[in-house]
């Protein structure tokens, strides 16, 4: 219960609990005090009491105050009101949205009803709130209940704590403080009754004497009784039945046992002759584990009655032992017969209810007759619904009246050896086991009789007895039967005796099998009937062979019920015994395989092809030469005859019965003819001349569709192609999967493989060859698509032959020394070229270019690489050491366009062979190499996200013109005839490469010259070929581009520079120099780019940086900001064509600026700072060389020399240390 507190006059607090609901702790505002006098007397009384409490006059409450957190939970009234208002607002919002969708009359009525429901629900909710507020005013009366509830809970907790403490003391502290147990019961008897009823056992032993006979005397008495019993039994031995298998005397008791029937115990109670035998116990040994689960079959009350009757008869009998036997033996035999009857009744009503019948059961006569293998038949003499039951065999279980000592006996009708019997001696009777043994013998008997009948009907038929657990007869119907699946198995159902015939490959419900089994089961089965059924089964077996042989073929068997009505009408002409096969690829064609019996032992197979088109069906003769493209297939589909009888003047049985391969051949042949018919029709529609010829009629695929005329589909004269083409045909290969083989046989091939001799994995080509190309995915193609693919392949061969034939004329005379033919397969040409024959050109025709409106290229030309021919037979291969790249891949599209325009492969190969050497080295500039711009971007502006850019851009303008770009420098390289190359500066706005002619002149002095005439600049749609477009002319760095007027070697010219291939190769050949991979042209362009970035770096260091007088490309800068005595000059050396630096100190300002130290500083710049390419490195170099105080220049020079000559894995630690006498930099 919440603690009492002064309340806010503007609000209230509500407390909720399960017992009292909501309590009021509300203050009154000044507006409510005006109505105070109008309240009811009880309210005034309550208010007066409240006012008294406020004045301090408070009556003492005997109940404890409820501490905070122990009372019921509370909720503010304003929260409750806010929740109600929000709920009403949500409901009215949803109602407004839903009412807009109801516009019909019925919707108008629903809108009104919704408004009424909403108003009613809202009014009810706020009425509850009003009632709650009114109830709050009197809810303070419930505070007493909260105090009472808290007091009761407190007392309950005290009781619980006390009980827990007492239990803990009992189990812990008081465990060892218990008193010993006293004799409470005698004490209570003495105190209450005044007597002592419980006496010690010593008193009993004192007043009650022990037994009068000792154990020794007991043994003597038992021995005497055993002697008397044995004597009396010996006197009766002549009359004791031999059924007593065990007679045991011990402890004065004689035990007599008849196995499987009973066991009795008898004794004598005296030594006189008049003492009668006393029957002590009877035990019945007859048991039933099948129904009674081994429980006693005779109740104890029945045994007591038998015990009394038998004792009375033994008392008056001359031979009591014999009398007991005959009485109990008669009872046990009757009990055994009753057990067998119950078991038989259970089986007749259960799993053998249709197969056995109890014909007679007479307990008095003690006879049970059971008939098995029942035949049920109907007779006109019987009433409706009655069935005549005749048992084929019977078994009789009875007691022989002449043999009183014998038990139950079994007699079978008819008699047979080794039939089932009953073991009465064991006591465990089982009718099921006896019938099972009998059924097994009867099945063997019937099978032997059937064997004699079959052998008599057909003497040459081999009938074997098989089966170990279940005997069966196995018959080989066909001479070539080798597997058990085709063997006829004859067995007998052991439950009902019916004959079962089975062939694994045939359906178990086959009509002939079922009829043959019924014929063998019936008693009227003649030899002719058996021979007829065997003939039918042989025919069915061969038909099944045919059916299984076509399972893997592209056909499926169709049932006649699945056919359309007009198709069924056509089948009336077909044989009744037939198989209907539908081609999966041509579903409107059906092959009907009919079987016609001709004579006694001959069956002829007939094939018919049925064509279904819309609602019309017709048979296509297979032996007519004019129906199926003028080629007879009668010799392929004729099946001849099947004979199942050996005759001297006829073919052997094995040859006649194994015909499934011939059927498969016929199905495939017919399907090939159908497919060829479709293809020929489609090809003729396209204008392609075809002719169906037979290359080999004895194997599937012997037919071929030859192409004879393509003039209407080829846009040019193809006479030369067909002059070399011996054969062009289409074959079907359906051995493993259905594919088409497009075969082209050529003689005098224009190009053959002519790679160098001696290669282990290659051989010289031949002028005559046959090329076969497979057309895959035939199952997903329509005939139209397939024909289109054939035409496309033919067009590919024709176009390729056209260009290859022209090239072959010049190849033998000229190109053979510059390239080699790797392979020519009519649809693809692969040529290797280059000095080492390690560059490949792959040429193929693009069939997509022949589609109407297509913009595809005629030829697909790709370039690749291979291993040099000189390394094929050598163990050392430098493939990974020297990666190869075919530079002609850059202009593959231009080469395709050229070949499409002129169809001249001679020009293409001449171009490839002439330009491969210079392009090999020039193409290395096109490899991806990045240059870091991070330091420069940090110096001149904000840092970029990816501060890298490509060093070079190599662009192709046309087949003879390339442009190499680095920064704002653009060089144009043009291939000329006579193994000449022209290079000129085509930088944006004006030429910028000073000393470019000097660079190539240094490499090739006698072969380099400046051309007097300008070369035409080819047009290009690629904007990047003209250099960066984001720079304006005034933004180019003119300070580093001013030519030297005194040195003509460094002049700037835009005229082409003519040179040989050897010169450009030396200028662009990348080699590893001082750990850097570079070439002369790369070194020159890098130096120009470095000068531009060095100027920006020095400008950021000092605004006084300026260019020197008109000189070579250089930067001149003084260090006046720091010392005003150091001058730097960075320039491009005309001899070495690389950057060098010249440092000059004012005279008298640096005593350590000796020529040796200045040389070290310059060399360090060339080998380290310049090669590093980092702007911060240049800035650090300048700042470091400006330190001249205290002889620092000499120390810095020593450090630079040590770094340039340092060995690997050598570390340096550099620090500054000040000495008293001499201050210098030292290194350790």
Automatic annotation (TrEMBL):
Keywords, sorted A to Z = Activator, Nucleus, Transcription, Transcription regulation
The residues covered by the Mediator complex subunit MED14 N-terminal domain are 74-268
| Annotated localization | Nucleus
**Gene Ontology MF, one:** transcription coregulator activity
An annotated GO BP: regulation of transcription by RNA polymerase II
Q: Does the keyword Transcription regulation apply?
A: yes
Cite the Mediator of RNA polymerase II transcription subunit 14 RM3 domain residue spans from the record.
433-545
Q: What is its main location?
A: nucleus
Q: Which Pfam families match?
A: Med14, Rgr-1_C, RM2_Med14, RM3_Med14
- Report domain Mediator of RNA polymerase II transcription subunit 14 RM2 positions: 351-417
Taken from the UniProt entry, a GO cellular component term is:
mediator complex
Which residue ranges does the record annotate as region Disordered? 1-70
Please list the residue ranges annotated as the Rgr-1 C-terminal domain.
Answer: 1153-1207
Polar residues bias spans = 7-22
- Family statement: Belongs to the Mediator complex subunit 14 family.
Its assembly, as annotated, is: Component of the Mediator complex.
Q: What does this protein do?
A: Component of the Mediator complex, a coactivator involved in the regulated transcription of nearly all RNA polymerase II-dependent genes. Mediator functions as a bridge to convey information from gene-specific regulatory proteins to the basal RNA polymerase II transcription machinery. Mediator is recruited to promoters by direct interactions with regulatory proteins and serves as a scaffold for the assembly of a functional preinitiation complex with RNA polymerase II and the general transcription factors.
Protein's recorded name: Mediator of RNA polymerase II transcription subunit 14
* Organism of origin: Caenorhabditis nigoni
Q: What is the lineage of its organism?
A: Eukaryota, Metazoa, Ecdysozoa, Nematoda, Chromadorea
Record gene name: Cni-rgr-1
